[in-house]
Amino acid sequence: MFRRSYPELAVVSHVLKDDREDFMVRREVTRADFTVYREHDDRTAPFPSRKGRGHKNRSFDRRDRRRGGHPGGFGPGPRSRLLDDTDGDVTMSDSSQDSSSQNRFTPYVRPSRKPDGRFDRRQMPGGRGIPGGGGRRERSVRNRLGWYKVTIPHGKKYDKKWLITALQNICPVQYTPVQYHVDHNRAHFYVEDSAAAGALRKCSHKITDSDGYKVELHVNPSNPPSFLQSDLKPEQLEHLKQCMAKRFDGSQQALDLNNIRTDPDLVSQNIEVILNRKTNMEAVLKIIEENIPELACLNLSNNRIHKLDDLADVVTKVPNLKALNLSQNELKTDRELDKLKGLKLVELWLSNNPLCDHFKDQPAYISAVRQRFPRLLKLDGCDLPPPIGFDVETPTAIPPSKGSCFGSDEIKALILRFLQQYYSIYDSGDRQPLLDAYHDGASLSITTPYTSQNPSRSSLGEYYKDSRNLKRIKDSTMRFRLLKHTRLNVVAFLNELPKTQHDIASFTVDVNTYTNTLLSFTVSGVFKEVVVDGKSRESTMAFSRVFITVPAGNSGLCIVNDQLFIRMATTEEIRKAFVAPAPTPSSSPVPTLTAPQQEMLTAFSLKSGMNLEWSQKCLQDNEWDFNRAAQIFTQLKAEGKIPDVAFIK
Amino acid sequence: MSACPAEQAQCRAVLPSWNKHSSFHSILPPRPAASSDFRTHADQSCRYAEEFVNIYYDCVDKKRRNLTRLYLDKATLVWNGNAVSGQDALGEFFESLPSSEFQVLTLDCQPVHEQATQGQTTLLVVTCGMVKFEGNKQRFFNQNFLLTAQASPNSDQPVWKIASDCFRFQDWNN
């Protein structure tokens, strides 16, 4: 018996009943890391607990065998499902040993060991470095290291810890799950032990999840998990990147990775890039994603690629990919193409893959490929007939949005003047003078959209308590209370609202209707809440306000209905707001003045005491008739209708 | 439209409904209303507004072809700054818009002062919400309507019609 001593190891013996009610002992040596050892007893091969064992007298103290102690092992009978190349490949030197086991068959799976505990996949199992008895056999590396991949079809939704614990609780065989990962909806992990694999397989549908579904498990032999395969180190990755850069044609946005393994640059540096390896493919995709994400053509021919799982990320990482060459690889079925669904390929090469032979004729082949890539125009270098669609195109274009819609220039002037006056008072800090703007029987209500955050804490809090939203407020008394009626109530209410500063330059005005007696328009824009005594935050808000007005006095407007909607401004709106200088009386471009006009302006300003801007406005409105302008000015001044702003120089 | 006082007394109890009936009788007479009348007026307006909004947005989403029936012949629509006027133009315009999914988040209304309408019963309805036009991203919008009571050839009672409609995406400028 061959023994070594490994101080950090623990030996765990498990007595198990296999499915034929025979006992089996498995001893397992475990370490802190996730690698599972077999005890250094060379008879402790993981015997698959298969059917047809034909063993009778087994107990677990069979360590007295000549060959150094079978711990009650047994063969799986004539055939092991899991290790199906063992047929005829058995050196059954122990067949002579135990006459009671007729059909004993010991498929040795001897992972080779290195002191650091990692499995060197390049070594043959039962191979070098492990002295011991017979029973060694040569096997091909691939798939024969005893690794199994456990797949849970809908495992993505499960919490890893919950799932692993649940499985370990019900699985009679102890195992260590290796490299748990999720891909699409599935969860996977590896186990290195055929007994565990078998036991796990039986655990399928034994656990019920929180939704009431039974957890399904599929267990299949597989290549060792990729962590065991060599990863590329940073310097190597850099070389790879350089190598790829050389193979990149910027003019075509094309990358040629044909037979990349034999690239002299890589070979000379002893860097092995084998694209059928998950880590290598991932490294390549990462380099593409980081450096040339707009890649349009990718040639992966001649890289021994047998599955496209690792290439699936290309759909999201290289969304512009239009041409893909997968010829001369080892793709076995067209179902592999499902993993690339979402790629809007126009050109595809698949020739010289085993899958090509699976189709009864060319049209079937084309059809299968086109199912995954409906826009494909070229397959294996041949043009395909263009796909025929259905003309169920429904219009998706919406008319382009425009700015203010006034309807006529007079209306425009009227409204702009009104807004200028209204908001200079509104922003002045005392809204009392607005009484003049409202009709006796005027109505006002405000609305703010519902926010899920605590309304009083948000900036809209000031407005929220007075918000009239019939979708939320159903009580008719409340509804009535929130509608301010008569100008006194209206203005009193407005005066309580936070102090504001409106960006008149940002206003958009849509004229809804106008008749002899009614002018209704909608104004939208942004305003800032002004910080007063450090109480209110300076927040930028957006509003939409409907004014319904009747004509008043001297080409003025009198508000009968006022509905104000306020919301938080978006970042875009905040960015654009208040870019223009502070509001001026004139929103239309100021025409250049002639010399006489200039003179008149100065005189008028002097006489009236108003600043140049307001003086100019007054003169313009009165067609540069000095006397008339003066008359109007005097009259309005007497009526107290000229805001103080006008006199600020 | 006006009703004689006798009819008015009879109809006051009738709950207003959208489609065919508008018992605007209870809203008249058009003299300056005492506050209790204003209260009644305001209450009823709310109910009309709620009903209107249900009908309107359902029509836009599911019966787009019938939408123009809700508008006055000479109604005006300003849609993101585009002015559209008259039944024919409105019909073409609505036809050209992709199919929609509207969701109304806020609703408010006010009875419009008679001085502006010269006695013609008018209602201001203001909404905000989200809309997804097919093939486009979802957007927030603000919309307001002026509804006016009109005689209907299909019924002996007045119906509400949209006299003006103003619609804008909140981010129309982006």
UniProtKB/TrEMBL annotation, chain B:
Start and end residues of each NTF2 domain: 48-169
CDD domains, alphabetized: NTF2
Keywords: Nucleus, Protein transport, Transport
GO cellular component: nucleus
Subcellular location: Nucleus
Domain of life: Eukaryota
Principal subcellular localization: nucleus
Pfam families from the UniProt entry: NTF2
GO biological process, one term: protein transport
Protein name: Nuclear transport factor 2-like export factor 2
Species the sequence originates in: Cyprinodon variegatus
